[in-house]
Amino acid sequence: MFAGIGNDGPKGKASYPATYPYVIGVSAIDKSGTVAKFSTKSNYVDFAAPGVHIPGWCDGKFTQYCDTDGTSPATALASASAALVWSVHPDWTANQVLRTLIDTAGRSWAKDEPSTYLGYGIIRPRRVLIDKNIDPGPANRDPLYAENGTDADEDVTATPSLSAAPAPGHPSKDAGSSGGPTSAAAKSSGSGGNSQTWVIIGAAAAVLIIGGAGFAVLRARRNA
């Protein structure tokens, strides 16, 4: 499950359900790859996606587009990115889709030191799709085992209950972290700058409607 981290700015609290284990928290960036001013800072952030000046319906009649801002449109793009990857690799599990998105995310910092603004970086599904030799890793190993409070070698095959408490490793990082980088696309080696950031929109738009449902099905397939 993907969820917006919140729109209360760097001093706000992360929103439910992004604070729960096995939920992927998404922050918002602008076209330069810099975290949006409204995007909440939190160590529950796993990915960043475009969330500023995103086309959206102006009213309930669905007759006109307007610019929308928020971590919600960013989450739609991130979820659609996962659905897009799964559509090309239907034999992968949720763990494998997530692992490849982490490995290919745009960032200028170490992968094992996620930013509290941008998480593991800007989600880039195209990088997964064009790499014919990409290694998705073990099917039943959680790539976010540390954040989710599990062991690296634990066989993760069951969908956790949403009533579970937040993972124990999260709060301490929020309390003491400086936050890490607030911009990734312009600095990350091989990210392609603005054009690479906005390729997310083109790649994910085709599956935007099925994005949320697509990844939900992906999780169900993992349990089959």
TrEMBL record:
* GO biological process terms, semicolon-separated: proteolysis
Q: What is this protein called?
A: Secreted serine protease
Stretches for region Disordered: 132-193
- Could you tell me the keywords of this UniProt record? Hydrolase, Membrane, Protease, Serine protease, Transmembrane, Transmembrane helix
| GO MF term set | serine-type endopeptidase activity
Transmembrane annotation, as ranges: 198-218
Q: Which residues form the Peptidase S8/S53 domain?
A: 5-121
What domain of life is recorded for the organism?
Bacteria
Q: Which Pfam families match?
A: Peptidase_S8
* InterPro entries to which the protein is assigned, alphabetical: Peptidase_S8/S53_dom, Peptidase_S8/S53_dom_sf, Peptidase_S8_subtilisin-like
